[in-house]
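pasting for ref
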Amino acid sequence: MTALFALATSLLWGLADFGGGLLTRRVPALTVVVVSQTIAVAVLGAVVVATGGWHEAGPGLWFAVAAGAVGPVAMLSFYKALALGPMGVVSPLGSLGVAVPVGVGLVLGERPGVLQFAGIAVAVLGILMAGGPEFRGAPVRRQAIVLTLLAAFGFGAVMALISQASTTVTGLFLALFVQRVTNVAVGGTALYVSVKRGAAALPQGGAGVVRAALPALAFVGLADVAANGTYAIAAQQGPVTVAAVLASLYPVVTALAARGVLKERLRGVQAAGAGIALLGTLLLATG
């Protein structure tokens, strides 16, 4: 079940990243983050009320608060790094965040078998290659590298924190709700400061463009929430070292979505990376 939920996480994260990437071509990235997470808060609030999740409140919610505070910082750092580029370097480096939950699992005493260790190494290599690394071209700006590594650490920290936020399904709904409320608080504050400094909060075309994009924004927000939920379940039911690597296959999903929807051609290194990542998945599942 760990593999199943972790792979579901990679599918959801991959589609959410693809949708978010498309939206940021029309809507400012910070607005995408705040609006999509606000929709997620509304839906999760209704779920928490319906399931009685309020009764699951406990000290573990502080992990959700921490995840909610780190998430927007990581996401905005990643968007900024992508803007500085080149994307072919930034994208695969962002996947290095998998080292955080894997490291936490090893510190906590998890010891994967030989096949699983091999699967982790093979899958991580495939994930990096699937991002389409650029081996030639203009040098990468130091700021882009720093921002990407900050984002990667943040993504990995969110994975590690959310897995500790609750041990029950109803408690998980509450934890995800608290995480998203914190996301909106942090992102909303950043948006307010940005507007005060004169930065545009709305795209060309005004609020009408945002309203037209609400279904897509809702999908991005809810897919991201669902991915956090399936990852938490995967990490609770099996080794975090395995769950984290399988959940981090999302760059493969994003690349395949771009190929299918936008007709973007996969570079040779990306196609090879997807195949290697799948091989690593098989090793992890059978190990």
